[in-house]
Amino acid sequence: MELYTTSLLFIVSFSTIIFLLFRRNSAFWRSINTPPGSTGLPLIGETFQIISAYKTENPEPFIDARVSKYGSVFTTHVFGERTVFSADVEINKFILQNEGRLFESSYPGSIANLVGKHSLLLMRGGLHRRMHSLTMSFANSTIIKDHLLADIDRLVRLNLDSWTGRILLMDEAKKITFELTLKQLLSIEPCEWSENLRKEYMLVIEGFFCIPLPFFSLTYRRAIQARKRVTEALHLVVRERRIEREKGVKKNDMLAALFDSDGDEENFYDDEIVDFLVSLLVAGYDTTSTTMTLAVKYLTDTPSALAQLKEEHDAIRAKKGASVALEWDDYKSMPFTQCVVNETLRLSNIISGVFRRAITDVKIKDYTIPKGAKVFTSLRAVHLDQDNFEDARVFNPWRWQVSNSLSI
Ligand SMILES: *[C@@H]1O[C@H](CO)[C@@H](O)[C@H](O)[C@H]1NC(C)=O
Ligand SMILES: *[C@@H]1O[C@H](CO)[C@@H](O)[C@H](O)[C@H]1NC(C)=O
Q1: Residue nearest to atom 14 of ligand 2 (CA)
Q2: What would you report as the CA-atom Rg of the chain, rounded to the nearest whole angstrom?
Q3: What residue ranges line ligand 1, CB within 6 angstroms?
Q4: Closest ligand 2 atom, residue 403 Cα
Q5: Nearest residue CA, atom 8 of ligand 1?
Q6: Can you identify the CATH homologous superfamily of domain 127-301?
Q7: What is the pLDDT along the chain (408 residues), one digit of tens a residue?
């Protein structure tokens, strides 16, 4: 009986709070000219529609239907919050370029627990810009040009040589990606330690795709524990490397770049460095390996593209001999490969979009996005829009050979 009363009390107060919140929220949204749209049921909004759309073969119907009804910017209500969706190239660019000024990144708390509060995904303002420019300059540095391709060449060969009989491509792609990332970040070669770290990582990643309540979800609990072990292991590495560095040992990797940038402004703390490494490993692992796997699928489905790609590579290989590693110049002389890369990225859309939150009222075209509103810039919708790309849903690397007016 008592339990019954308590739970009744709980339900009543809970729904009152939600009702009040919801009403406040609605009044606030109605007061200015926000993008049109439907917000579905109270509380739940259109969350079921978006989830069921993503469970079909073609996940576009959710956005397609709304874009044709309301235009390329519309309001919906998903995952507990009103959200402005943008499927417009210019608006997406505007939102992403105003990171830290008009918009800030916004991810659910469950993700923060897994990637760490200092991760690039969650960082805001100055620190975000600093880490971001560091990542970009690292990606453009001579370190990458001189070592990355040689490392890719070597690690891919190593893995290919170990393949026997039937393999699962996605698993192999993940292994290669992880080994390569670890090499670039920390100069660590594939070994038992790295393979164990990768197993922990897989548990962390699983945590992204489950109900983020430790009490209900074993997967989430396991992910949190695995994350703890991962950060402990990385902390040890960072500490050892600091000691080595004081003794004058120099290495060419991301960690060294992080240490070196210490002089610029204030130092990065070990905690910040570790979270940063965790997020780069998370970011690289699933996205890169899935894209690699899809590239193979698209090429298999399009034999003429595969043949042309092989021809280009065979020509380079014939010039260099079988055992000489690829170099930056070789990579730069693969025009058709670049087209295949672009087309794969356009079509696969592993990152389907980015969540941001408006820091202030923002006027875009004829609408106002109210301060505090969540915004989703859909990259996928732009990539798959027939107005931007002819036969947008077909894999056609040759489209990149004629100069494309759109550059995203
Ligand atoms: C990359 O480096 C080159 C030369 O070092 C420079 O011209 C170019 O602007 C850089 N690109 C980026 C994106 O930083
Ligand atoms: C691939 O896409 C990038 C970014 O849009 C663009 O700068 C580059 O020119 C494209 N490459 C080719 C070969 O079209």
Answers
A1: 400
A2: 24
A3: 136, 140
A4: 14
A5: 140
A6: Cytochrome P450 (1.10.630.10)
A7: 444 555 554 444 444 444 444 444 554 555 567 777 776 666 566 766 666 666 665 656 778 888 888 888 888 887 677 888 898 889 999 998 888 789 887 766 656 666 666 665 556 566 666 667 777 777 667 766 777 888 888 999 999 999 988 999 999 999 999 999 899 889 999 999 999 999 998 888 887 766 656 666 788 888 889 989 999 999 999 999 999 988 988 888 888 888 877 555 566 778 888 888 887 887 778 888 989 999 999 999 999 999 999 999 999 999 988 888 888 888 888 999 999 999 999 998 887 788 889 999 998 888 888 888 889 898 888 888 888 899 988 999 999 997 654 544
d(CA 362, CA 374): 12
Helices marked H in 86-187: 89-97, 109-115, 125-139, 142-143, 149-162, 169-186
Residues contacting ligand 2 via CB (< 6 Å)? 338-339, 342, 400, 407-408
Alpha-carbon dihedral 84, 114, 43, 71, rounded to 10 degrees = 20
CATH topology of domain 15-102+354-400: 3.30.43
Best residue for ligand 2 mutational test, from 332, 337, 399, 400 (most atoms within 8 Å of Cβ): 400
Closest CA to 77 of 39, 108, 20, 48: 39
Q: Is 140 helix (H, G, I), strand (E, B) or coil?
A: coil
Q: Whose CA is nearest to atom 9 of ligand 1?
A: 140
Per-domain residue ranges of the chain: 15-102+354-400, 127-301
